[in-house]
Design goal:
By secondary structure, this protein is mostly helical. It folds into 2 domains: 105 residues, no CATH class; 125 residues, Four Helix Bundle (Hemerythrin (Met), subunit A). It is 65% helix and 4% strand. The chain is built from 12 helices and 3 strands, in the order H-H-H-H-H-H-H-H-H-H-E-E-E-H-H. Strands 1-2-3 form a 3-stranded antiparallel beta sheet, covered by helices on one side. Helix 8 crosses helix 10, helix 9 packs antiparallel against helix 12 and helix 10 packs across helix 11. It is elongated. The chain starts with 14 loop residues before the first helix and ends in a 5-residue tail after the last helix.
């Protein structure tokens, strides 16, 4: 006599039902993951539509003139390049925070990446760029050396040179207080600073350069005076006198 199979207990579930439910659950999870993946792709696509032609190198190039011009405060914030960088950063952040797959891990990633535009601005070091121009520049003119010297004194010592008579005092102060910029070739820095002194003399008293094969033998002729600013620079460092350059400069206009 054959035994009748026992049916499921009241309220019980067939194993096949459990199996299919598990399969449905996996299918739903996969579907959710696919939806999240699709949503993430949509975010990237939306961003790419506006930014697909903007590489990180180009973003750095957008930041470069902001630094070179020394923009700060409202002047910086209102610059179109800065606004574009900030807009990109804000768009990415909002899209990620508004997505369905937003998690604490995503927030940590956002915070780690916050300040993208600021980081790009900091990635470009104008002082380092000017030092490279100085150290590796070939066949620079007195005018080119002078411009580099002017920028280095500003960036290294924080002292603005406007090439007025008083600028000689400022060069005195920069050399006494800050000295030669780190990583700058000392000999090349001498060329740059002395050329700047020479250009200031020419601007305020007239004259011209008398160029020699060895640059440190070159002089400025103004009126009946022949001045070697390279010697002035060397003596300034040797003597260490705070106003040595300015004392020498005052003699240019004296009778």
């Amino acid at each position: 006599m054959s035994k009748k199979g026992k049916g499921p207990k009241k309220g019980g579930k067939k194993k096949s039902d459990e199996k299919y439910k598990d399969m449905d659950s996996v299918s739903e999870e996969n579907s959710e993951e696919n939806d999240e993946s699709d949503e993430f792709d949509d975010i990237i696509d939306d961003i790419d539509e506006d930014w697909e032609d903007l590489s990180f190198d180009e973003m750095a190039q957008m930041a470069k003139p902001l630094i070179e011009q020394g923009l700060k405060g409202d002047e910086l914030r209102n610059h179109p390049h800065y606004q574009k960088l900030m807009s990109l950063e804000k768009e990415i952040t909002q899209e990620l925070r508004g997505s369905s797959f937003y998690t604490e891990e995503i927030e940590a990633m956002i915070k780690q990446g916050m300040g993208l535009s600021q980081k790009i601005l900091k990635a470009y070091d104008p002082l380092e760029e000017e030092i490279k121009k100085l150290n590796y520049g070939q066949n620079l003119t007195f005018q080119e050396f002078a411009l580099t010297g002017e920028k280095l004194i500003d960036l290294w010592a924080g002292i603005k040179i406007d090439r007025s008579d008083i600028s000689i005092k400022r060069i005195d102060k920069a050399l006494s207080w800050a000295g030669i910029p780190k990583k700058a070739d000392p000999e090349k820095f001498k060329y740059a600073t002395a050329s700047l002194i020479g250009e200031i003399i020419i601007k305020n008293h007239g004259g011209e350069w008398i160029k020699e094969d060895n640059i440190i033998d070159s002089c400025v002729k103004t009126g009946d005076k022949i001045i070697n600013p390279f010697k002035w620079y060397e003596e300034k460092l040797i003597r260490g006198e705070k106003t040595y350059l300015y004392e020498q400069y005052k003699s240019v206009s004296s009778e």
